[in-house]
Amino acid sequence: MCGIVGVVSSQNVNEKLFKGLANLEYRGYDSVGMCFLTNNKFNIKKGVGKLEEVHKKLDFLNSSGSIGIGHCRWSTHGGVTKKNAHPHVDCGNRISVVHNGIIENYSELKDELIKKGHKFYSQTDTEVIAHLIEDNLRNNGIEEAVRVSLNKIEGSYALGILFADEPDKLIGARNESPLIVGLGDKENFIASDVPSILSYTNKIIYLEDKEIVVLTKNSHKVIGLDGKEIIKKINTINWSAEAAEKGGYGHFMMKEIHEQPVAIANTLNERLRNGNVQFEKEFGLSDDYLRKVKRIVIVACGTSWHAGLVGEFMLEELARIPTEVEYASEFRYRHPILDKDTLVIAISQSGETADTISALKEAKKYGVKTLAICNVMGSSITRISDGVIYTRAGPEIGVASTKAFTTQLAVLYLLTIKLSKLRKTLNEKQIRDMISGIRKIPLQLQSVLDEDTEILKCAEFFSNKPNSIYLGRGVNFPIALEGALKLKEVSYIHAEGYPAAEMKHGPIALIDKNMPVFFIAPHDIFTYKKVLGNIEEVKARGGMIFAVATEGDKEIPKKAKRTIFIPKTLYTLSSILASVPLQLLAYHIAEKLGRDVDRPRSLAKTVTVE
Ligand code: AGP
Q1: Pairing of strands 88-89, 95-100
Q2: Which of 19, 92, 304, 308 sits 20 to 30 Å CA-CA off 350?
């Protein structure tokens, strides 16, 4: 996820680009860049770091031009370097491009363009766009060259494009990445979101997929990839700037919960090919090595530790590799037993959690191979590890982890497929079923999000109770733990997660009519019937029962006060779908109680102390 902004005006655009990017920094902050066009020449300033850091060195505000584009980056292709920072230009330095998205066929296009003599300077997929347009500009005007080029591109993009020889025109385009157009007074804008330009205009056009916009300071025109002009509705936005930053949601947490279908789709993007899983070159571990691994140890904290427990279930059940999950904070103080056949996996959203960094360093002392599952490119944990799989959730601002968690589960599932295939613990049909199962998850998540009204009704019962219990079994036991953690951290209500059958060994004494009990009980061949029995045990003691169940389940709604349905999926994948109602429940309860949802008391997004 990156942020882009562009302005064409009758005045200097430096401040507008700067403020626009400052508002978009939540979308990515590993590098930043701007391009101003003056006297038919580009003035490009870019560097690695946050906007303020790069600004200190390059002074963005000391630039002039009445047309410009800007970008803040969240790396996907190519490391965090100045060369890979946007904007990117063509060979002749006459076309400048900023991009948010992933060009899936970039390597094929790059090979073709190199054969034609184009020279590339970065490792990004974006640079291909500048050269492709340059190539098509030989026989076309600028609008047509952009259109013809985009017809060759597969993947997602939001683009801002400048041409040194057409200094009055700013071109934007979108496909599966957000881009809006702002219409101002003698100036027009493109941006990744509304808030970044809301101080300058509230007249907004929402571009749809496969649409191109051509802006001058006094005009706008939208065309489709077929070249036909499209008349668009101009919307007047009445949001406050703060509400707008959160995309119209009350809090970042809610926004991030709703981003999960896209986050999971991004996490899968380009990794499922020819009936197999392929990670990028940063994965760093050879097939030969992976075939020989005898044991996996996962180290993590908090929500990431819960993801590790789900990973343990998947890796043991399907890839048949003995797996242990350790609290990173405990691991380094207990002389772990590690040998060369053990793979240590560190899971961390931020990649900067001090306990996880220390655990990883401890593991490295034993000479084992290490793999990071991480959301932040270039973070400490990714630099220490031998290999990395990125979760591609995009920046997570809310302290309570939501989309980072479900994308961690998606990565662990992909890793399980890869290992199962390599070690032949599953047959081809089982692998195909796993792949088609996860491909459906983004759409299925959307339908879980649509259950929100029902979840809001559950929140009514929880919000005035001081305690609650979450119960699940198998792959959904860690989801019970995660549901309880979400509730504790954002609402300050005491909550506990247990394996459902463990209840009768003690915690059942807590059950009375004031105790809400949330069962995570999707249909499965392993434990479903036993869970029905556990529900009866709680019911017999007067507990208030709520449940997540599989669509079509007739039994659970008879026993529960409220049931949230999730679509049918493979058992292991039910853990991803079942997480979302629990996130929404915690959110609604916290909101009802007036808590500071995005910044709960005593918590920090990244815990950099041990
Ligand atoms: C989750 O909602 C928490 N805020 C917290 O438990 C978090 O998962 C933990 O601190 C680990 O962070 P990391 O994933 O960035 O390492």
Answers
A1: antiparallel
A2: 19
Question: Distance (Å, rounded) from C-alpha 356 to C-alpha 327?
Answer: 8
Distance CA(532)–CA(528), nearest Å, equals 6
**Residue 26 C-alpha to ligand 1 middle, in angstroms?**
18
Query: How far is the C-alpha of 67 from the C-alpha of 187, rounded, in Å?
Result: 9
Neighbours of 378 (CB within 10 A): 16
- Reported as a pLDDT band with limits 50, 70 and 90, residue 53 is very high
pLDDT digits (tens, 9 = 90+) for 541-582: 999 999 999 999 999 999 999 999 999 999 999 999 999 999
- Is 375 near ligand 1, meaning CB less than 6 Å away? no
Evaluate: CB of 357 within 6 angstroms of ligand 1.
Answer: no
Domains and their CATH numbers in the chain:
3-241 (3.60.20.10), 246-448 (3.40.50.10490), 451-596 (3.40.50.10490)
**Preceding omega of 478 cis (within 30 degrees of 0):** no
**Which tens digits make up the pLDDT trace of 111-159?**
999 999 999 999 999 999 999 999 999 999 999 999 999 999 999 899 9
Q: Which two tokens stand for residue 558?
A: 């008879």
The alpha carbon of 380 and the centre of ligand 1 are apart by a number of angstroms equal to 15
User: What pLDDT, on the 0 to 100 scale, is given for residue 178?
Assistant: 79
Ligand 1 proximity of 349 Cβ (cutoff 6 Å): yes
Cα distance between residue 410 and residue 472, in whole Å: 19
Measure the CA–CA gap between 155 and 287, rounded to whole angstroms. Answer: 28
| Residues, the chain | 610
Closest ligand 1 atom, CA of 605?
A: 4
Pairing label, strands 235-236, 203-206: antiparallel
User: Of 512, 518, 511, 509, whose CA–CA distance to 471 is shortest?
Assistant: 518
Task: Give 365 Cα–ligand 1 centroid separation in angstroms.
Answer: 25
Residue 594: burial class (beta carbons within 10 Å; 0-12, 13-18, 19+): exposed
Catalytic residues: 2, 605
Which amino acid is residue 502, in one-letter code? E
Label residue 25 by pLDDT band (50, 70, 90).
confident
DSSP string for residues in 473-503: -GGGHHHHHHHHHHHHHHH--EEEEEEGGGG
Residue nearest (by alpha carbon) to ligand 1 atom 9: 302
- Region of 160 (left: φ > 0; alpha: ψ -120 to 50; beta: rest) is beta
212 exposure class (CB count in 10 Å sphere: 0-12, 13-18, 19+)? buried
158 in Cβ contact with 177 (< 8 Å): yes
- Could you give the 3-state DSSP secondary structure of residue 330? helix
The response to whether residue 401 sits with its C-beta less than 6 Å from ligand 1 reads yes
> Of the residues 252, 306, 352, 353, which should be mutated to test ligand 1's pocket, given the most ligand atoms within 8 Å of the CB?
353
Separation of CA 362 from chain center: 29
Average pLDDT for 408-423: 98
Residue of minimum CA distance from atom 4 in ligand 1: 400
SS (H, E, C) 141-169: CHHHHHHHHHCCCCECEEEEEEECCCCCC
CA dist., res. 211 & res. 1, Å (int): 20
Write down the pLDDT at residue 257: 97
